[in-house]
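Feature request, filed as a ticket because there's no other form

It would be nice if the structure record came with a short human-readable summary line next to the tokens. Right now we just get the raw output. Example of a typical job, pasted below so the devs can see what we mean:
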Amino acid sequence: MKILFVYPLYPDSFWSFKHALKFISKKAAVPPLGLITVSAMLPSNWQKKLIDLNVSELNLKDIVWADYIFISAMYIQKESVNKIISECVKLNKKIVAGGPLFTQEYKNYPLIDHFVLNEAEITLPLFLADLSNGQPKKIYTTDQYADLSLSPVPDYHLLDLKKYVFMNIQVSRGCPYSCDFCEITSLLGHKVRMKNTRQTIKELEALYQLNWRGPVSIVDDNFIGNKKEIKTHFLPTLKTWLHKHKYPFVFNIQSSIDLADDKELMSLMIETGFTSTFIGIETPDEIALRTCNKVQNKNRDLLKSIRTIQNSGLHVSGGFIVGFDSDTPSVFQRQIDFIQKSGIVSAMVGLLNAPKNTVLYKRLETENRLTTEATGNNTDSSMNFIPKMDLDELLDGYKKIIHNIYEAKPYYKRLRRLLMNYNSLYKRRKKINFSLINAFLKSMYVIGIVNKGRIEYWKLLIWTLFNKPGLFSDAVTFAIYGYHFRTIYGLRQSR
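Raw output as currently delivered:
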């Protein structure tokens, strides 16, 4: 059997980092972990090929070669999904689809032959058994949650590693919290299910043997969902393995804000090689936090918690939302002030949307306020429901936030705040990073000479050399991030 895995294209968006990747000659931030994991579940004697449209093109000869086309996607990739389906149907090729988009919206894709939905550890074996008997069904679904000990080491060898900034692994699934706008618990449950540490080490060993060195993204929706297991077993074992292998990797994660409450955990993470975390901050407004059930963020000094994490040695990026029913016009300036004071350089600010099967979606459906499907793009100024605030006022306020945090002057001011808050405590990697040197040289020309805001760029570099010389590479990296953000928001201008 010949299987072609196709991963759809991401549009130009906040997290694509498309305009930053050019500085380091990379094509994509992360590879399609879901597809290469599914690949490892298929019979070993099947022929397999991966086309990630974010790093390479899909040619007709690739489709002709395959017996089946496997695709997986998220909401934001819908446009590319439709093009892939069209090409496959023209050539009369059978399509097998899974992943978050199809699990939520399989009824919208009548041309797809087979849906392997929810968690593949459960549904894929059922499909494969029926396929071997010549009677595969249209839909395979389950309301059960997978035993992650059944999840194999992903087929990392299918990747062209040099085209990616990060490799990625998954340690756990599920989240103990119940934010009403989040679909994670509806897809993966409240109970945090973890792979055993031995499995994760095998995945890292596979990457090591493929000569990957550098950043690894742990894609868990909340890495500290099972804090006890992470502290007592996972991190100590990982630290031992990394020491034995001379620390070939550094890690970034997603976590909840209560990470700030555990200094011992943060210290262990830094010692192990963790360098950054993404946190859903959402809003500084207590009423909105309460109504959306963001319990982990309530009744705390959010700015202090962020500074604590930054001081520990972890960069913090964050998600922010406007458009809650309780929001008033004052929320826009409050968000601006909070983001600027926080030193969160990568601040993803989006209008509230209601993904399918969430508590928010069901409430808005009952209130007859839903208008369309969510795009999955947090920063495209779209909403899929009628807000309580006047829509024009909400959109104007949203644009005000974006301009006031991503125009060159406030952006570089916030970046200096980060560098003041941040303690770089991870010091093991001393090798010369030629990729970063090349990126710096490109940034001097593109950001420092060609583009508007170049004076702020040079002021940042000079300030860093005098005040935080040890963080010069961080300053350059985030200056490049700023170039990307200004580009996607239409704020960048050449002179």
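Something like this underneath would help us a lot:
The chain has a mean pLDDT of 95.
The two ends are 55 Å apart (CA to CA).
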